[in-house]
Amino acid sequence: MMRRLALDPFTVLLMVVVALASLFPASGQVAVAFGHITTLAIGMLFFLHGAKLSREALVSGLTHWRLHLLVLASTFVLFPLLGLAIKPLALALLTPDLYLGVLFLCALPSTVQSSIAFTALARGNVAAAVCSASASNFLGIFITPLLVSVLIARGAAGGSPLDSVLTIVEQLLLPFIAGQLLRPLIGAWVDRHKPVLKFFDQGSILLVVYTAFSDSVNEGLWQKVSLSTLIGILVISALILAVMLGAATLASRRLGFSKEDEITIVFCGSKKSLASGVPMAKVLFAPSALGMIILPLMLFHQLQLMVCAVLAGRLARRPDSQTP
Fold it and tell me: What is the model's pTM?
């Protein structure tokens, strides 16, 4: 139990990067250079996401359309509605800027790697998890900026929702499509080097986090965020996660899904993607606001990993004959 609740190595690295940005924030021309580097890194990150995505795995799970619709409804409908519903509590515990971060969290797509990994550990429908999580991330490129424009009227970096979508398409979708188109040529190489490329994925996110927190620290981030505020973020995150886990479980059982499909719905429909969220935040929000925006996402990310690890381990030990 304690091993499952421990911080994962990537979360530790995130905390180290936040500390570095707090003590040694980039500024001036250094910050400008980091901004250009992070833009290129994000493009390469989504290029690799496209190159890694197996079309065969997606096709094998497409027949479970009811499952995918439920996951998408959980991710892009119920999550945002919950974010709006908890506004009175959130504003009692958090600053208005951090509440914007909570709303941004609620607008994000589901995770891919951890959703699939937890589904596999819990002996769920892995093929459907691959399809559902991947579809969530792809559709999130379009849906998330539209949700952000609705939920966070003043939060976007500027322009109309269409401008936000076009910016996302340019910086994230086009590299993703390029990776998919080149998969027949480079897919085998990418699959062989997934462990190595994972370091590039994580390094890109760490770079964006450092740049984001540098800008926010220069704007006085830690004068606005206290220990009690961090505890408030954890309370709000725990509430959101508990409601979404319960809602996904209840909905899948009421609709008659098998236990394997229920597991897929629970793990794909209750989590949010740090890997997609950090790059999207950089595109959608002003640099000075990024620290406040992604802080709730970073804490929610660790909480969902710990809770889902325990839940997946428990489900893995169930009898084979267990039914929903």
Answer: 0.80
